[in-house]
């Protein structure tokens, strides 16, 4: 056997041994992977925060400091980051300021109407008992062991108290851990944004040290495509949410629905979740309108279904699809598959991921057709 065959056999044997080892110790390896994931989770979240904040920060930095003097450009990164944070928190504060008071007021109205509702239920029960006396006779024949009921109730309360204590302790621990992770993620995100050029140079240096130059160039091209695609997706998602919120505000104003501004802002906020996020806003909006006027709540749901069909089948695929370079049909496929696999996170991630895969596959197909000297007339007709 020549050296090439021996090397291939060695690789095959090593691969088989590794596969056997993984299968035999699958639970241990899974536990190790979970431990590593929990260890690096704050940094992963921080990287996601940095990537999201980089979109408005880069826009502010490009437009605001394009012709700034050299002395001011020294501080452009920090100023742009602060302004981006101010804009994001201002928008969130405005939306919360619109939503929370109305929700609180509606809950207070609902609580105040409960006694009247209870009286109506009692009157209905009395009327039902008078109309059907056999029901009253049946209830009177039923005997209860009140001592057993009291004992059972006390035992249930005791168990609930113990469970509540354990849940409170667990929730407190999770809260502290979440706060610590949030602080670490925020600090890491700020560091990444302030030092992103330096970090990029270090990563490139490491890649060139480990891989051949041709592979490094291909990998950097893919990473650049992914970065641009994700940035465009975030921008397109925000534009789509703004369009949908405006549509709801205008339609509710025209048809004189209550809470037009608040529901429009709520729908715009929840619409950041692809395709299905607006349903969350619909449920809350319908609940608020239901307290004021049940009939209008029904028509609000009808209006929502109409606007949702327009948004989901026409506006969303074109706005987001054009922003990421993905045809409308594949946007719907990406949202459906991602939602089934990973829920809301999958919906957010699969559109840009599918866009990158689509661009790479399209480029590979064109290259293969060119290498095989196949005329475009063969596949365009």
List the helices and strands and how they pair.
Elements: H1 3-24, H2 26-64, H3 70-73, H4 76-131, H5 133-141, H6 146-194, H7 196-210, H8 213-254, H9 260-270, H10 277-292, H11 294-324, H12 328-371, H13 376-380
Helix pairs in contact: 2-4, 2-6, 4-5, 4-9, 8-9, 8-11, 8-12, 9-10, 10-11, 11-12
List keywords for this structure.
381 residues, mainly alpha, 13 helices, AI-2E-like, membrane, transport
* Contiguous uncertain segments of 5+ residues: none
Number of strands: 0
Q: Largest beta sheet, briefly?
A: none
Distance between the termini: 51 Å
Helical content, roughly? over 70%
Radius of gyration: 30 Å
Task: Please state the overall shape, judged from the principal axes of the Cα atoms.
Answer: extended
Give me the secondary-structure category. Answer: mainly alpha
Family: Belongs to the autoinducer-2 exporter (AI-2E) (TC 2.A.86) family.
Membrane topology: Multi-pass membrane protein
Transmembrane segments: 9-33, 39-57, 78-100, 169-194, 238-259, 265-290, 297-316, 328-361
Protein name: AI-2E family transporter
Q: Can you give me a brief rundown of this structure?
A:
This protein has 381 residues and is an all-alpha fold. It is 90% helix and 0% strand.
